[in-house]
Amino acid sequence: MPNEMQSLFFAAIDDPYPVYRQMREHDPVHFVDVPGFWILTRYADIVAGLRDPRLSADRFHLTQLEMRSSALISSLANMMLLRDPPAHTRLRSLVSRAFTPRVIEGLRPKIESLVDELLAEPLRRGHMDLIDDFAAPLPLVVIGELLGVPVEDRAQLKRWSDDLIKILDGSIALAGFPAAEKAAGELQVYLEPVFAARRVAPRDDLISALLAARDQGDRLSDAELFASCVLLLLAGHETTTNLIGNGMLALLRNPEQLAALRADASILRTAVEELLRYDSPVQLTSRVANESFEIAGRPIAVGQEVCLGLGAANRDPAQFRDPDRLDLRREENPHLAFGHGLHFCLGAALARLEGQIAIDALVRRCPGLCLESDSASWKEGVTLRALQSLPLEL
C-alpha cells in the first residue's frame, strides 16, 4: 500500500470505511514503517489474532516498567485489559464475580428513569446536542451509580475519564500522557478513602462487591482494585456513549431503517447489534508479538505491535453480506465490536442494555428527530470512534 494510503488511514476520521476496504482488498496484512507496526483488516485474520497466544495483550510492555510509583503506570500494569493469562484469568474471574447479570439487570429501572430525566428538558426545548445532553451523561451516571460515586462528584469523574481514555489510543497516547498521569493520581487520591470506607461499611455498589470478591481465598490487591475501577470507568461509559452517538447518526442517515425501527419495536435487539457492527465504538485493538511467526505469509517479529481492525472486520464482505448496508433485521451478526475470545468486553451486557433503552426512547419519543446539519464532528484518535457533538432537532 502506498504511503498516501497510510496517511489516509490516520486522517480518515470522518469515514474510515473506504480506507479499510482498500486495505482489505490490496494489503490486508500491512506494515506501517513509521512508527513500525502491522495492521490487519480481514475478519478471519483478526479473529485468529484475538485468539492467538503468541500475541500478547501487554502492549505497553508493562512487565518491564519500573515506574510503579506512578498511579497511571500502576493502573495500566494491573489492568486485566493489558494482561495475559494466568494474570488475566485471575483478574477477570474476580471482577466478573461482582459484575453479574443480576447486577446489570437490576440497573434497568434506574437507566429508564435516567433516560426520562435526561430527555425532559431537550423535549421541552425541541432540540439538543445528543452527546453533551444525553449520550455522555447517561452511561456516566450509570457507572457512577455502580461505583457508588456521589452525584456531585460525577462531573469530575468525567474529566478524569476523558484524560485517561487517550492513553489507550496509540495515535494520541504520547501527547495525552501528562494529562492522563495527572488524572490517574487525582483519581487514586479520590478513591483511596472510598475503598477504606467500603471496607468498614460495605454498600450495595460495585466497589463493595469488588472488595468482597474471592476465588478460593484469593482477592484483588489494592493496586488491582484501583486498576479495575479505572477500567470500569473508562469502558463503562465511553463505549456506550459512542454506541448511542454513532448508532443514532447511522439511523438518521438511513431514514428507511429508522422508520423500520419505529414501526416494529421487536427488532430492537438486532437493531442495536447491527448499529454496533455498522459503526463500532471501538475501531482498533492491538497486541504485541511475543515470538516470531507469520500471518498470511507476512513475517511478524518479536516485539512488533499488531493492530487488529475491529471496525474493518465488521465491514468484511467475506463475513457479512452487503456489509456497507445498515440492516436492522440482520440476524447472523457475529460482529467484533466487543472484541472476541479471552478479552471479550466484560461490560458488553451493560452497554447493550443502556443502548437498547436509550435508542428506543429517542426513536419513540422524538417524532421530529432529525440532524441539524449533514456534517458530524468527530473526536481525534483512531482507536475509539467518538462524536464530539451531534446537534439534533426533536
Question: Which helices and strands occur, and which strands form pairs?
Answer:
Blueprint: H1 3-11, H2 17-26, E1 29-32, E2 37-40, H3 43-51, E3 55-56, H4 71-77, H5 87-96, H6 101-105, H7 108-125, E4 127-129, H8 130-135, H9 137-147, H10 154-165, H11 173-200, H12 206-212, H13 222-253, H14 255-263, H15 268-278, E5 284-289, E6 293-295, E7 298-300, E8 305-309, H16 310-313, H17 348-365, E9 370-371, E10 377-378, E11 387-389, E12 391-393
Parallel strand pairs: 2-8
Antiparallel strand pairs: 1-2, 3-5, 4-12, 5-8, 6-7, 9-12, 10-11
Provide key terms for this protein.
394 residues, alpha+beta, Cytochrome p450, 5-stranded mixed β-sheet, 3-stranded antiparallel β-sheet, 17 helices, 12 strands
Q: What is the structure about, briefly put?
A:
52% of the residues lie in helices and 10% in strands. With 394 residues, it is of the alpha+beta class. The model has no long low-confidence stretch (mean pLDDT 90).
Report on the structure:
With about 400 residues, this protein is α+β, with helices and mostly antiparallel strands. It has a single domain (about 5-394), classed as Cytochrome p450 (Orthogonal Bundle), CATH 1.10.630.10. The chain is about 50% helix and about 10% strand. The protein contains 17 helices and twelve strands. The protein has helices at about 5-10, 15-25, 45-50, 70-75, 85-95, 100-105, 110-125, 130-135, 135-145, 155-165, 175-200, 205-210, 220-255, 255-265, 270-280, 310-315, 350-365; strands at about 30, 35-40, 55, 125-130, 285-290, 295, 300, 305-310, 370, 375-380, 385-390, 390-394. Strands 1-2-8-5-3 form a five-stranded mixed beta sheet, sandwiched between helices. It has a three-stranded antiparallel beta sheet with strand order 4-12-9. A two-stranded antiparallel ribbon has the order 6-7. The radius of gyration is 21 Å and the shape is globular. About 45% of the residues are buried. The mean pLDDT is about 90.
